């Protein structure tokens, strides 16, 4: 892959007590056949401390990968939510995240909100900064939460407000959805062990006219399993680079600690509900050792996988060093 020198500048916005500045670090190719690496600096411009932030922008290309934030795209809008380790910002403090985008173009113009002041636009939702976040793309997914964790739900404005059946979740907030014309956003807290089904469906004004229109109705559902392992007294197992390829057996309630050098990317948080990622610190590009804590939450099997990354991989002329894969295979029993 041949990268060209930086040809685009920066784009910044400051609203909602928060500013987001995007800078194109490198580009290669041209148009849809190319790609670029974008770095985003997020700053708390409020006089109050913030514990979470959300950055949104108009998506013009596919998000290939991201680091130091969870990035999703829905309905033409891209949303980046802070990681567990970089959401808290003192007044004037800043952090950063990065991503690789398919295609080339100018640095995206971004909007930013945090919880230091009330949100200022509809696309910012109460699900920002939740421990787990689901969108319309997660329909059919099963999510495992620990008691005390939060679940954020974000759906396009064409979906009705979500209904919940079962026990284990308490709704903290809800807004938008059909027929308000605003995106639907809700926040739930896991309060007790149990099982909950969240569901919704699309709706349109023309479906309520005579005669109704023929637009199809899309169904959305997510199954939530809440578990409590706080009193299980499980063991703590720590794995390092020497455990690459290892098959590991855990019991529900055990703690898994992944401890790797700083050049490794933070691993994805989704492990099918078998392991719940509690917190992440360090890893590329923080220059600090990577430490990730998981709780074994449900019986099953899961892989934890990550790769090495280096600053020179993002230079105009990438370095030739190999990318190393690290993975462990985890089996959880009761």
TrEMBL record:
Domain CBM2 span(s) in chain numbering: 11-125
Keywords assigned: Carbohydrate metabolism, Glycosidase, Hydrolase, Polysaccharide degradation
PROSITE patterns, sorted: CBM2, CBM2_A
Stored SMART domains: CBD_II
Coiled coil start-end: none
Location of region: Disordered: 110-134
SUPFAM superfamilies (alphabetical): Carbohydrate-binding domain
tRNA processing is among the record's keywords: no
Name of the protein in question: Cellulose binding domain-containing protein
